[in-house]
Amino acid sequence: MDAILLQILNGLDKGSAYALIALGLTLIFGTLGVVNFAHGALFMIGAFCAVTLQKILTISSVSIDPEKKDFLGNPMEVKTPYVESIFGEATGQLIINWSVPLAILFAIPVMLAVGYIMERGLIKHFYKRPHADQILVTFGLAIVIQEIVKHYYGANPIPTPAPDALRGSFDFGVLLGFDPNAVIYPLWRLVYFAFSALVIGAVFAFLQFTTFGMVVRAGMADRETVGLLGINIDRRFTLTFGIAAAVAGLAGVMYTPINSPNYHMGMDFLVLSFVVVVVGGMGSLPGAVLAGFLLGILESFAAMNEVKSFFEAIYLPSIDQIIIYLVAIIVLLTRPRGLMGRRGVMEE
Amino acid sequence: MTLIKPTRRGVIQAGALAGAGIAMPTILTAESHAGYRNAPQGSTVTLGFNVPQSGPYADEGADELRAYELAVEHLNGGGDGGMMNTFTANGSKNALKGNGILGKKVEFVTGDTQTKSDAARASAKSMIEKDGAVMITGGSSSGVAIAVQGLCQEAGVIFMAGLTHSNDTTGKDKKANGFRHFFNGYMSAAALAPVLEKMYGKDRKAYHLTADYTWGWTQQESIAAATEAKGWETVKNVLTPLATTDFSSYVAPVLNSGADVLVLNHYGGNMVNSLTSAVQFGLRDKQVNGKNFEIVVPLYSRLMARGAGENVKGIFGSTNWHWSLQDEASKAFVKSFGTKYGFPPSQAAHTCYVQTLLYANAAETAGTFNPCGIAEALEGLQFDGMGNGATEYRADDHQCFKDVLVVKGKDNPTSEFDLLEVVEVTPREQVEYAPDHPMFAGGDLGQCNPGA
After folding, report:
1. What is the extent of the structural domain holding A47?
2. Smallest Cβ distance to A10: which of B62, B248, B343?
3. B208-219 pLDDT, tens digit each
4. Which value does ipTM take for this structure?
5. I want to staple A115 with a disulfide (CB 3.0 to 4.6 A). Which of A196, A242, A284, B358 is the partner?
């Protein structure tokens, strides 16, 4: 039972990342009709916003300490971050320690700008082109972005730890009456789940309760009529692209303490998120969220040793690697529009 | 007078004839000249450096490339000469003169293995066929190393393996044209098991997470056998795909498995991520079976330690070489590498640098680039002054035998490079095995192939 609970938590956590990326992906598809294969790259850019802020905060003044020697036996250079010189040692260290959560504030304007530039600079020229063209150009863009990041930050994962206060693990089992130590879960992963729920809630609230959101939803349903009413729907859709980029970016920022970011992390998530969107139903926001969590949980269960042994016995080895695609096939065979897909989306 | 009208068939026939004519001199000379493949023409010789520049081992690959460039610089007489000043072969000074190899200036081409066997074979093939590389070297994934070693055997060039730790590289997949300086899974296990027994006791239950390819399998087999011989029990071994980035679903079941030790048979980016997950899940703070839960990383590198940050503190593993060693050779190498790049070299860089010098020295002693001559010079070579103490290239399997370092993640690092401390230098006798040991049996070295 405790093992199952652990995997549910794990699944919710994996699902959070899938859901956040898929949400943006489907939002862009629903509004602009573009299949954005560069969305994984946006997630990665978000993560590198956290890396960049960490680097900025640790820019240091260098002094020579003749007492200490470096690895070559020369006097050692001692680095003192400017943040510590400006705000005092304790406050400076606190700021550096909390660099990942602080990166949220840094990432929002950066991601909005990246989204805006991407949409105005490239994607808008492909609105009327076939989906195959859109996939090719956005996939190409993703590779370009990836290589640029690799050039400047290197190919190695860069450790971006969570604040000390949120670094430990949390005994979840005790809350639910299990033995102590039975269900331990990393604190930061719980934070990630809560944060995702918050962002997803905020996006839905924004679309549901604001005039802007109402227009966007109307545009998703019938772009032409909204245009005929004299509303500049294109401008709003551009902003929607920016919002989707920001959501992917925030997912990336908060993901950095879970796995040290590298230039390839976007691609790792892209294919899975795309499957999530298809399973959820192209253009369906609740579908993306539902499918994200569902597939995350299924993937976690499939990684359980008992489940793997069972599937191995019926000649399905490595079920944890294929479960998502297997489910996608079944869903598409039984519900071709996905779990919550609407009629008329991606159909003639 | 009749004009000959060009017909489609005529043009094709003429084209084919002309093409064959142009190719004729190459067909006749390219591979038969000097009796071996890619015999250097003119005043230069080309080496092929095939390293992962992307994928989970990219970090190691980048450092390997730095070491190769440094080795080329030293061979051509540049820099301070590094370990060329300390390297002794068969008891006397090495044959390197600082004027390239056999008087030919060393040039190099590089390829990206992408940590994938097919990509690695393609880039090695291109370096051999298009660039005329007379030797291929590189590594970081044993799957890749074994694939490329096989290709070099067929193509008739020498393969000087870089970082590859699978038993199979010089075990069942050994080849006459392939040579490995790096140690292997068996040696890690033989060195590590006594230290683990001393630190954590005899009565332990181990849970293994293992990278799902040749290196992971053979290391897991070696560690399980060595620790079981010390009284440990192997509770479970779970294979994880090389491309895994989030190990949480593999780590979570460890908590309730009854195991009190987690062995991570992972390397590079895999190890950074799996260790981070294990620490995040609170494994190191846990008490199981009345003992502290422990994590072991049998193959360690400083680059990984840096990626994993604070999580490596106090964790045991083994390494082929470490920059903090105080012998003259290690100091000379660290000095030249550190001066050129601003940070100390990794074990991957060390083994690649050493392999390049060993190849060059073998060519000088043999007086030829012919793979068979070089193989003969390397087989049974006793050398020293390369950072590992007295070392032998065993003729039976082309594996180097030397001391092995057991290391531990340092509790109080004094700098960003000072992450591992050497706990024990395990002598060669303790890690040596017979060429027909069951974990290495099944392969055949075969005959050296000069490719022509």
Report:
1. 2-57+105-334
2. B248
3. 999 998 889 999
4. 0.77
5. A242
